[in-house]
Amino acid sequence: MKAGMFDMRFLDTLPASILLVDDDPIVIQVLGKALAELGRLRFAMNGEQALNLCRQSVPDLVLLDAEMPGMSGFEVLQTMKADPALAHVPVVFVTSHSQQAMEERGLALGAVDFIAKPIRPAIVVARARTQLRLKQAIDRLQRLASTDGLTGVANRRILDEALDREWRRSRRGGHPLSLLMLDIDHFKLYNDSCGHLMGDRCLVAVAQSLQGCARRPSDLVARYGGEEFAVLLPDTDAAGAQYLAGQVLERLHALAIEHPATVSKVVSASVGVATVDADSPGWGQPSSEEEIAEIAGMSRGSLRMLAVADQALYQAKLTGRNQAVFRRVDLTIPLPDVLTTRVRALT
Ligand SMILES: Nc1nc2c(ncn2[C@@H]2O[C@H](COP(=O)(O)OP(=O)(O)OP(=O)(O)O)[C@@H](O)[C@H]2O)c(=O)[nH]1
């Protein structure tokens, strides 16, 4: 799947991935036989192996022996909870200890259930199935909350979060960061002349085209609203961002989506590009408290980046459309001045 693409509807139809962890091969065999009908099984005989398998491919469910030589199940669970990529994976403890203290400890660490040995296959299957159904429902809700229903790309909430995170990472680590804002030209006319259904199809095509351009795993394509899209490009400097903006326009032109109401007769877009990198005035200075402070849940830095990309987009519209305009973020300009620039340009 391409980077940033959140359309994972087909994943619901994939078999679940279950990891069985136990140092006793007999237990693994019994569990494996019982759970084979529920999905694709993998096995680990110790904690390190279990964590390696989890990191290679994140499972939907882990059945974990609490007591193993070396790393215990409790330690495995603690490590998983500390890793953002694994923290959400449901873990069911399987142990020969039925003492309440063990159960309490496992549940307190974040295990979702507790199964005591000797194993009764029907109970294990029923409990595993319940956890897999829950996980599937949560995954589906999370997808709904993070994707744009029409185009399948990330929604604005996800963009805001990613921009905020990447801005802080950029300022802390001295990595360049770029943001593209794209707005389809004369889209109202397109809707008026071709109909809203075709308008929707056009939005889907543009989203897919953007996905084709932004292919790094950390790139993020999002629908910003209406006929406006954003592409977040971590670790991308001015030259990279301008190259990508050119690719975006070229690809869109190559799609040749007919637009009967414009002179060019094909759908085009305007792009605003904002980059913060080593050539940005104020780059070397440590990020101030002021910059990290939040307005309406977003850091001031994210707002600065959005505002600069928006100004560049506005300029691209004003000066003819079907083009990309680049602006480098100037960290020395006070944020209130940045936020009001477009207003001033209008008046
Ligand atoms: N079909 C469809 N249209 C949408 C959707 N969201 C927003 N629009 C339309 O997008 C159009 C945006 O129009 P404007 O903001 O005037 O911009 P424009 O016509 O593209 O003009 P410029 O941006 O100046 O080139 C409006 O007609 C909206 O109704 C959507 O999900 N589907």
Task: Please describe what this structure looks like.
The modification 4-aspartylphosphate is found at residue 65. Residues 175-329 form the GGDEF domain. Residues 17-132 form the Response regulatory domain. This is diguanylate cyclase. It catalyses: 2 GTP = 3',3'-c-di-GMP + 2 diphosphate. With 347 residues, this protein is an alpha/beta fold. The chain folds into two domains: 17-145, Rossmann fold, CATH 3.40.50; 156-345, Alpha-Beta Plaits, CATH 3.30.70.270. It is built from twelve helices and twelve strands. It has helices at residues 25-35, 47-56, 73-82, 100-109, 121-146, 156-173, 187-194, 196-213, 238-255, 289-292, 300-318, 335-346, and strands spanning 16-21, 39-44, 61-65, 91-95, 113-116, 177-184, 220-225, 228-234, 269-276, 294-295, 298-299, 324-328. A five-stranded parallel β-sheet has the order 2-1-3-4-5, sandwiched between helices. Strand 3, helix 3 (73-82) and strand 4 form a beta-alpha-beta unit. Helix 1 crosses helix 5 (121-146), helix 7 (187-194) crosses helix 8 (196-213) and helix 11 (300-318) runs parallel beside helix 12 (335-346). Residues 1-11 have low confidence and may be disordered. The structure holds guanosine-5'-triphosphate (GTP). Guanosine-5'-triphosphate is lined by residues 150, 183-189, 191, 196, 199-200, 203, 226-227, 317, 321.
- Tell me the β content: 15-25%
Coarse structural class: alpha/beta
User: CATH topology of the largest domain, anyone?
Assistant: Alpha-Beta Plaits
What is the C-level CATH assignment of the largest domain? Answer: Alpha Beta
* Small-molecule binders: guanosine-5'-triphosphate
Q: Tally the helices: what do you get?
A: 12
Q: Bin the helical content.
A: 40-55%
In N-to-C order, the SSE pattern is EHEHEHEHEHHEHHEEHEHEEHEH
Report the principal-axis shape. Answer: elongated
Low-confidence stretches: 1-11
Count of DSSP E strands?
Answer: 12
User: How would a textbook summarize the main sheet?
Assistant: 5 strands, parallel
What gyration radius follows from the Cα positions, in whole Å? 25 Å
Quote the average pLDDT: 89
Order of strands across the widest beta sheet?
2-1-3-4-5
In angstroms, what separates the terminal alpha carbons?
Answer: 45 Å
